[in-house]
Amino acid sequence: MTPTPQTQRKRSRRKSASPMMLSTEPSNANEDDSGNRTQPDTPNTSQPNTTGTQELTDQEELMRARKTASNALSNAYSNYYRPELSKQKDKRNRLMIAYRCRINLLKHANACQKKQREAQSNRNLAALGISGTGDIDPEEVPQLCAIWCAEAARPFSALADESHKMILHPTVVKHMPSDKVLSRLVHMLYTAVQDSHRKNLINHTGAMYIGADAWQSPNGFDILGVVIYCMVELEGGKSNLEAMPLDFVRLAKSHTGVYLADTIRTVVEKFGIQDKASHSHFDGPPSFSPPQ
């Protein structure tokens, strides 16, 4: 029977080997495996890169850094000048890129380091393991400083002395008031204790003496200070003369005897002891006329 084209195709399919059968046949040992592999037309990412990474030159790196600085959205680059090649070299012996700052950062860094050293040197005893220092309320610092100056008649500038700050509590140093604030606080303290002094002077039964002293302050103001001396009886029949300042008045006109006497009388009447003080003593420069 003459084979038809359809049967020829069927026979040809039977005679052709399947891919599975071809893959199981042993290959010749002398053949090179690489010869049977087909190289793709397009490069694959899994293939090793035999060309290597090409490093940029110093000028190319500089141009790249300048482009990054000019196109950056951050404001940090505005604090620096245009990048330049530095004379220093990195570990691969290549020139480094320098970003020169527009402001003196070295001065700011030294100031910050100085503050850190001072903070470490001003540690309190509690930080060193010594108890008994206690905590100080920052709101009480101005009052404590005003009392310290008022009790011993110390100048306000004594608080700002650097050697004095070294022995003070860190909280006091941090919240120390200025001279103007101290002056206002001392005046407030004096006003607050006037009622207490007025009651003590009115109830006093011993002798009382009034003293006055006038002087000129460094800023050119004439000041009159009025002091009360009270005779206090002690145990064993002894007595002691205690002094307490009543007021300090700024003189506004010529220092005549009448004007000074009226000023002292105003201070004494404010404390209600105008009928108890028996004597007065005035100590002033020769140009002053003592009250009669």
Could you walk me through the main structural features you see in this protein, from its secondary elements to its overall organization?
- This protein is α+β, with helices and mostly antiparallel strands and 292 residues long.
- Among the domains are: 42 residues, no CATH class; 47 residues, no CATH class; 79 residues, Immunoglobulin-like, CATH 2.60.40.
- The protein has 10 helices and 6 strands; from the N terminus they run H-H-H-H-E-E-H-H-H-H-H-E-E-E-H-E.
- Strands 5-4-3-6 form a 4-stranded mixed sheet, with helices on one face. It has a two-stranded antiparallel sheet with strand order 1-2.
- Strand 4 and strand 5 form a beta hairpin.
- The radius of gyration is 49 Å and the shape is elongated.
> At the first level of CATH, what is the class of one domain?
Mainly Beta
Note the gap between the termini: 169 Å
**From the 3D coordinates, which CATH architecture of one domain would you assign?**
Sandwich
CATH topology of one domain: Immunoglobulin-like
Uncertain stretches: 1-50, 285-292
> How much helicity do the residues have?
25-40%
Backbone shape: elongated
| H/E element order | HHHHEEHHHHHEEEHE
Summed over residues and divided by their number, the pLDDT gives a mean of 74
> What class, by secondary structure content?
alpha+beta
| Radius of gyration using CA atoms only | 49 Å
| Percentage of residues in DSSP E strands | 15-25%
Number of DSSP strands?
6
**Major sheet description:** 4 strands, mixed
Strand order of the largest sheet: 5-4-3-6
Annotation field: number of helices: 10
GO cellular component, one term: nucleus
